[in-house]
Amino acid sequence: MPQCQNCQKEFTIYPEDREFYQKIEVPEPTWCPDCCLMRRLAFRNERNLYQRKCDATGKTIISLFQVDSPYKVYEPDYWWSDKWEPLEYGRDYDFSRGFFEQIEELFRQVPRAGVLSMRGAVNCDYCSSTLGKNCYLCFLWYGNDCLYCTWGLNVNDSVDLLHTEMCEICYQLTDARRCYNVKFSHQCYDCWDSAFLFDCRNCHDCFGGVNLRNTSYVFWGEKLSKEEYEQRLKTIDLGDYEQLEKYNQKYQEFKKQAIYRNLEYLKSINCHHCEYVDGCKNCYECFDLWRVEDSRYVYNSGECREAVNSSYFGMNSELAYECIGGGTGAYNLKFCETVRGSANMEYCAFCHNCHDCLACSGLQNKKYCLLNKQYGKKEYKELAEKIKKQAREQGEYGQFFPLRMALYPYNDSYAHVLFPKTQEEVVTMGGWWQDFQEKKEYSNQILTQDLPNHIREVSDDILDRTIICAESGRGFKIIKQELDFYQKHNLPLPRFHPEVRHQHRLNQRRARQFFKRKCSRCGKIVESTIAVADPRRVYCEDCYQKEIY
Ligand SMILES: [Zn+2]
Ligand SMILES: [Zn+2]
Asked: Which ligand is the nearest neighbour of the Cα of 419?
C-alpha cells in the first residue's frame, strides 16, 4: 500500500484507479485522495472578495485576489477583450530547468481575471463563477435575480440558498430541487407554497413538517382541511422578526423527530462511499455531485463522466484527472485549473476553447501551444512528449501544481474550509498564507437589536446603514434589490452577516466524513455521515423506504 507523501498515511490504489491511470497515461498518485483534494482546493477561492485595482486599467474592482497578490489581475471585461495578448508572454521550454519552475514563472506573469467570471454574466460584479443577470454575492451560480446564493443551477428570484436546482421565489433553503415559493426548508424536492419543511417531497401548502410525501395542508405535522389550514396561516406573520424566530426554534426542535437516511442521495446507482449524489452512476468516494458517471474522488461537480480526483468541474465534460474548476464541454483535461470548453489540455490555467496545449495560461481559441508559445501540430506533439517524459523522470509530471503556486493564500481558499490548518502547517506543506485586516469601524452603523422588528416598519434609509452582525460583529449592508425582496415577500431584515448566514446553511448539511453506525430501526450496521454519538434517528435505506413511503 503506498504511503501518502504529504500526510504519511497509507492509502489504497484500487484496480479501477490503476486502469484509469493507465488509460490516460499518468503515473500513479503519490498523495492520498484527501491530500490531493486539499491541494486542488488551495487553488480555489470560492467566496472571499476584495477591493483592489485592475492592473491594466487602474479601475477599482472586486476580486478574488487580495491587493498584494503575487498574481497580475485584470477586471473581467478587460480580461475577456482583445486588448491584451496572452501569446506575448510565450517562451521557449528550457530542458535544463524544472517543469513546475517554468510554469510558475509564466503563470505569475500572465494576467488573471479578478473573478472566475463567465462570459455573458450581466450585472453580477460581486459574484464569482456565476452566469446570469442581476445577481449579488452569488458563487457557483446559474440564475437570475438572486442574492447570497451558492452552488445552484437554474434558480431565479431567490435569496440565501445553498445547493439548489430549478427553484424560484425561495428563501433560506439548502438542498432543494424544483421548489417554488418555499422558505426556511432543507432537503426538499418538488414542493411549493410551504415553509419549515425538512426532507419533504411533492408537498404544497405545508407549514412545519418532516419526512412528508405527496401531501398538502399540513401544519406542524398535523394534516388539516384546506379551510382549517388557511385559518391557521392567517395567524402567522413571518415579516415579524420575533415571530419568525419562534418558528425557527420550533422547526429546529421539530426536526429532531425526523427520520434521517444513513446517506443522503437521490436516484443514484452503484455509488459507494458517496454523499449528496443526485442522478449519479458508478461513482466512488464522491461528494456533492449531480448527474456524474464513472467517476472517483470527485467533489462538488456536475454533469460529467470519467472524472477522477477532480473538483468544481463538469457541465457536459468528459475525461478529467486532477482538475479544479472549469469543464463546460471539456474533454480530456489533466492537471488543469479552470479550463473551459477545451480538449487535450495538460497543466493549463484559465484557458478557454483551446485544444492540445501544455503548460499555458490565459489562452482563448488557441491550439498547439506550450508555455504560451504557438507551434505547428507536429512540432508541438514532439516537444510536448519530450517535456512530459523529462518531467515524469523528475517526479513532477503526474502531480497537480505545487501548493506554492496556489492562486490564493491557503486561508482564503476552499481548502481551508474543508481542511483547516494553522499558518505553520500550511507553510510546512509548502503553501502560503496571508491575513487580511477587515475594517472594524463602520460609519452609520446599527446594531441588530435596534432594527425594526417588522419589515413594514423598514424604510429605504436602511440602505445607508451598516448592520452589525449579531454573531460575528462584521458589518453588512442591505441592497435595494434585497429590500424589495423582503418587502414583497413579507420577510424581516436578516440579523446576520451574509457569510454567517452561509455558514448556518452549511451547518444544516452533513460533513464529508463517514462513520459505521447502527440503523436505529433494524440494527443493521451501515455507513453514514451522521456520527455514532449523534442522537438523531438514522435509518438504513430499506427501513427508510419502508417507513417514509
Ligand atoms: Zn495524504
Ligand atoms: Zn434498517
From this structure: 1
